[in-house]
Write a sequence for this structure.
């Protein structure tokens, strides 16, 4: 009888549990397994049985209890899972909407170019030297073998401040500052390391039109030592230009010219296609800077004996090489600070120029 | 310097094609600026004749012409007043492009009359400025012939840029010499027959300023007939863009370009007295120059004066009053050698750019005077007739004995070249150098007189107090002439022949090269860009009024010769120009952005410091997720602090003091200080007066970080961090303090109350209003306690909190809010 009753109880309970919702499931649990639940009462009834019967009935009741307990927890798991699904469904957001705005900044293309120059010239053992924008007439001209009556001085379109000061027309005064410093220690019997510097910086000339800006940037290079020849000048420029433009076969040509501070003096041309603007291709040449062996007078003006030391210098316009590398057409926009232009041509601050990552 | 190919060939015997000539010019340092063949643009233009010109039936100012260009008769409408029956003209058929306007001609109808082409003027063809009427050709011009060919325009005109050292290349003969030396042909000799003069010159030289003019020659030619130059001379001058004037003047211009030998001609009858005197300029020396402008001379200038006063600024420009014209019968030719430096200085002072000045200041051939005068005399006699006098002379032929030595080893050890000694010597000889002595190791050559850029007398301008000055000067005197010779040899050979050699490096692994300051500047840039700011590069100068808004606009930073009034003052801070950049963007309708620049600020003593300045306009962008928020002074402070932190400034050491310079809002600005004296940065809202003046929105915020002021971080190895296993706990406090007390003081006091336990303090509420007494502010802070040895007991926590309250109270006068 007992076992039939138990069987009936289980047979009724299990489908009820399987169909229960969260509230009725709790009710079922109480009615079956609660303090006065049917199964609990059956267990309590075991106390009135003899040992043999108790053993048999006990096993049956416990089995039934286990079946019910399992069913309850299985159902609860299903209900919990359904509830969570509903909750999550209700918590849906529009993942297609834009996140909170985080405006992106950028580095000016000229900064990027200077970083690239630093990376390349570092590999060739150069340091970066700097000097002031407001210079003495001597540093900017006289020391560089440009006396006051020199026709080249008139060609420089110099800005003058009141007094004997000028806005430097080129970065070359930093050559002078560097050599003077060097000559002082060298002259005192010490042997400073040979000079290898580049000098990127602001320069100024009184000229303003589509292709000239009254302020622009140059990068100067200076190498002084023993046994430095024009062959090194050529090698250094070729190594730099090919690395900077990322063109291992870029044609580079030196062409005789004249600057007061170098002798011999040479313009530096790179090969390109004038029609398409493609660098390295075509049969045209594009002037990219000036260079030469440092003039003996310049060395001597700085106290360096040209019989013992010699070297080369070069200079190029940073805007020019930046425009060429990135296909930028209009010089004036470099200084216009048009937010749209800056976003377009600006460089990411997260990818500093490095040779191993590539320029 | 311009010259036509045919002119070049009067001096250069060559079969070289044009391309080779151009390539060689470039190679040897005579850079080709351009090549033009006028005939190319004029191909379709032919010679035609107006059969009949009649008034246009429907337009007063037009003429209806019947024209023949060799083929069928054409109808052409023409507006030129000189279009008349029988005139030979230059005809442009339909399809031709007018060179100056780019207009392509079509058959059309002008007021009812068919027009099948155009009759053209000089200006329309780009051949001159004359546009009074159409070109009138001589009667013998062949109808139907190509105009350009008939007019001798069909040849290339080459323009080269001559560097300041090469006075000799400002002459066709000099260019021919260089090309011949580079192997492009043979230089034709220049050997004018000496002219024997008859009688003394009517005008004599007197030289009272030998410093400016060491040697001068002249002679009179009487009985000349001046008039238009012959066609060949007109064509020569026109081919290089010179306007023919009259034969005597044209002859001087011809020699200026042909031999690089400027000459001047005076009309003898216009000279007051028998003497022309070279002397210093005097008070009142003033005369109308040939360019029509009044010329004045200073005491340093050399003038040529007659009995009436200065008539010519020597070597630069002549005077109108004594010039030659069609009526001239007696001419005096001046052929002088002027001092280069004096000419350059006078030219600069007077602001006159003339072909004569360009040659004298670069240096002319000091030995060529008699030959040049004879050649010019011969041409005057040939073209104008007359009788030449003897030569008058002042000063004497200057000595010319320059030598230079080349050690052959230097070709490689300096020039990087493998040119052999015989090759080097041959090159020099082709340029006119002559061998004086030669041995196995070196050659000494004499420098030709036209190359006064080679082996110049030493001219140093040494810095004072250099230990090696003397040896350096000796070295330069020894090395400079040799460098000149190496330059000549290399340029003729071509620099392509030099093998490039990579610079040797001490190690394959490059050492870091940026100085700490340079590295930190680069880092500051990157930090600001990652914070959403766009880097700008703006001019170092602006106008003085705008600059004055940012402090002072001292005279010492004013440009003496600004390119325009709005670029006349070196800026006091990059903010001055950055603010203008922001205003330009706003004017374009762009809002909500941030800009920064890492650049110089200039001080009144003309020193400069490096400043990273930035500016934020508007606010955060629109978003559905968070309301847009206007930028405020705290955004600018965050920009500055983030940079300082990235640059290794210990944040504990940075204090904020309120207030700033006048361009900031007095109540919304501050300075970030390290210690009492070092200002690292400034930030704040810009002053409303400033934003109004610059068309910026009110509330624009800015910062300035003084990169030079930031001390180099100490390079210490980091100690191991404390990583206690105990959980930190947080206690919140609300303090009431006087509103004048800054939050920083409260936070600092709390932090310092128990250094071993307090690892963090944060301000999370700042409240004034209901419940807070007037003049007070409630500051709520959260303090993080991090036990390091054992968990804290309640009693210990109580004790710490009490110490915090006491310390904050002691330092700031704050009381715990009840």
């Amino acid at each position: 009888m007992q076992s039939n009753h138990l069987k009936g109880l289980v047979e009724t309970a299990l489908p009820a549990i399987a169909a229960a919702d969260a509230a009725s499931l709790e009710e079922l649990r109480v009615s079956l397994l609660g303090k006065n639940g049917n199964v609990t009462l059956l267990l309590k009834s075991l106390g009135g049985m003899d040992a043999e019967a108790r053993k048999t009935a006990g096993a049956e009741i416990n089995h039934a209890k286990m079946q019910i307990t399992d069913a309850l927890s299985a159902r609860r798991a299903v209900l919990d899972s359904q509830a969570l699904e509903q909750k999550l469904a209700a918590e849906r957001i529009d993942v297609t909407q834009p996140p909170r705005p985080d405006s992106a900044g950028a580095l000016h293309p000229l900064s990027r170019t200077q970083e690239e120059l630093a990376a390349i010239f570092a590999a060739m053992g150069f340091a970066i030297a700097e000097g002031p924008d407001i210079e003495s007439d001597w540093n900017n001209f006289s020391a560089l073998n440009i006396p006051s009556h020199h026709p080249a001085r008139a060609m420089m379109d110099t800005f003058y401040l009141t007094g004997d000061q000028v806005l430097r027309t080129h970065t070359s005064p930093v050559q002078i500052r560097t050599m003077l410093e060097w000559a002082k220690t060298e002259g005192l019997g010490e042997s400073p390391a040979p000079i290898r510097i580049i000098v990127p910086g602001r320069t100024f000339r009184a000229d303003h039109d589509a292709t000239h800006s009254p302020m622009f940037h140059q990068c100067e290079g200076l190498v002084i030592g023993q046994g430095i020849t024009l062959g090194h000048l050529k090698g250094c420029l070729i190594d730099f230009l090919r690395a900077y433009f990322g063109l291992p076969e870029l044609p580079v040509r030196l062409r005789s010219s004249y600057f007061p501070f170098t002798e011999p003096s040479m313009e530096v041309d790179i090969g390109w296609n004038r029609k398409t603007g493609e660098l390295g291709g075509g049969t045209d040449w594009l002037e990219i800077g000036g260079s030469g062996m440092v003039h003996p007078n310049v060395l001597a003006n700085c106290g360096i004996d040209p019989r013992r030391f010699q070297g080369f210098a070069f200079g190029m316009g940073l805007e020019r090489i930046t425009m060429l590398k990135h296909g930028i057409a209009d010089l004036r926009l470099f200084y216009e600070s048009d937010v749209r232009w800056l976003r377009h041509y600006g460089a990411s601050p997260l990818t500093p120029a490095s040779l191993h990552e590539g320029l | 310097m311009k010259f036509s190919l045919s002119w070049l060939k009067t001096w250069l015997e060559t079969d070289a094609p044009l391309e080779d000539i151009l390539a060689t010019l470039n190679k040897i340092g005579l850079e080709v600026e351009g090549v033009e063949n006028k005939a190319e643009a004029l191909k379709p233009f032919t010679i035609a004749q107006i059969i009949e010109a009649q008034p246009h039936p429907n337009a007063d100012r037009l003429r209806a012409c019947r024209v023949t260009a060799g083929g069928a008769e054409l109808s052409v409408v023409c507006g030129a007043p000189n279009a008349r029956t029988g005139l030979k003209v230059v005809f442009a058929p339909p399809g031709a492009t007018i060179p100056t306007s780019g207009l392509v001609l079509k058959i059309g109808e002008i007021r009812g009359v068919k027009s099948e082409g155009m009759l053209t003027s000089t200006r329309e063809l780009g051949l001159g400025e004359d546009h009074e009427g159409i070109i009138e050709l001589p009667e013998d011009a062949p109808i139907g012939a190509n105009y350009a060919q008939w007019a001798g325009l069909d040849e290339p005109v080459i323009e080269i840029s001559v560097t300041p050292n090469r006075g000799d290349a400002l002459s066709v003969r000099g260019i021919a010499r260089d090309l011949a030396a580079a192997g492009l042909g043979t230089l034709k000799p220049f050997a004018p027959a000496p002219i024997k003069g008859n009688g003394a010159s009517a005008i004599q030289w007197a030289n009272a300023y030998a410093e400016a003019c060491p040697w001068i020659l002249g002679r009179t030619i009487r009985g000349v007939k001046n008039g238009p130059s012959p066609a060949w001379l007109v064509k020569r001058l026109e081919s290089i863009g010179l306007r023919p004037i009259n034969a005597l003047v044209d002859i001087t211009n011809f020699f200026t370009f042909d031999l690089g030998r400027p000459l001047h001609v005076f009309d003898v009858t216009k000279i007051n007295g028998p003497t022309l005197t070279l002397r210093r300029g005097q008070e009142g020396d003033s005369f109308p120059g040939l360019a029509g402008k009044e010329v004045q001379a200073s005491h340093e200038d050399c003038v040529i004066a007659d009995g009436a006063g200065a008539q010519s600024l020597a070597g630069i420009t002549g005077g109108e009053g004594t010039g030659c014209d069609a009526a001239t019968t007696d001419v005096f030719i001046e052929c002088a050698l002027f001092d280069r430096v004096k000419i350059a200085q006078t030219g600069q002072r007077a602001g006159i750019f003339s072909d004569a000045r360009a040659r004298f200041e670069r240096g002319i051939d000091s030995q060529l005077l008699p030959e040049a005068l004879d050649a010019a005399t011969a041409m005057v006699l040939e073209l104008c007739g007359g009788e030449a006098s003897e030569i008058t002379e002042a000063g004497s032929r200057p000595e010319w004995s320059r030598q230079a030595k080349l050690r052959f080893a230097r070709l490689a050890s300096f020039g990087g070249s493998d040119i052999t000694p015989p090759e080097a010597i041959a090159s020099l000889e082709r340029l006119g150098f002559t061998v004086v002595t030669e041995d196995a190791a070196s050659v000494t050559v004499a420098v030709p007189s036209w190359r006064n850029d080679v082996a110049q007398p030493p001219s140093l301008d040494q810095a004072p107090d250099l230990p090696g000055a003397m040896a350096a000067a000796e070295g330069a005197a020894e090395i400079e002439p040799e460098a000149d010779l190496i330059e000549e040899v290399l340029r003729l050979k071509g620099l392509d022949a030099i093998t490039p050699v990579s610079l040797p490096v001490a190690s394959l692994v490059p050492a870091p090269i940026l100085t700490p300051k340079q590295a930190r500047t680069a880092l500051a840039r990157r930090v600001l860009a990652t914070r959403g700011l766009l880097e700008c590069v703006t001019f170092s100068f602006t106008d003085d009024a705008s600059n004055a808004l940012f402090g002072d606009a001292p005279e010492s930073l004013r440009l003496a010769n600004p390119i325009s009034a709005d670029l006349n003052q070196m800026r006091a801070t990059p903010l001055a120009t950055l603010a203008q950049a922001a205003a330009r963007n706003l004017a374009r309708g762009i809002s909500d952005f941030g800009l920064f620049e890492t650049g110089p600020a200039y001080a009144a003593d003309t020193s400069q410091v490096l400043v990273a300045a930035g500016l934020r306009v508007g606010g955060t962008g629109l978003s559905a997720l968070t309301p847009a928020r206007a930028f405020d002074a705290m955004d600018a402070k965050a920009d500055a602090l983030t940079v300082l932190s990235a640059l290794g400034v210990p944040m504990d050491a940075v204090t904020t003091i309120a207030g700033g310079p006048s361009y900031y809002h007095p109540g919304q600005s501050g300075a970030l200080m390290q210690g009492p004296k070092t200002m690292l940065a400034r930030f704040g809202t810009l002053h409303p007066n400033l934003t109004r003046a610059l068309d910026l929105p009110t509330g624009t915020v800015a910062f300035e970080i003084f990169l030079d002021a930031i001390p180099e971080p100490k390079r210490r190895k980091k100690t191991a961090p404390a990583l206690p296993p105990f959980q930190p706990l947080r206690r919140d406090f609300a303090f009431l303090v006087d509103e004048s007390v800054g939050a920083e003081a409260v936070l600092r006091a709390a932090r310092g109350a128990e250094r071993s336990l307090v690892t963090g303090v944060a301000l999370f509420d700042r409240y004034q209003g209901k419940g807070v007494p007037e003049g007070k502010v409630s500051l709520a802070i959260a303090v993080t306690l991090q036990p390091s040895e054992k968990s804290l007991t309640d009693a210990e926590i109580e004790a710490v909190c009490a110490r915090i309250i006491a310390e904050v109270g002691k330092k700031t006068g704050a009381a715990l809010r009840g």
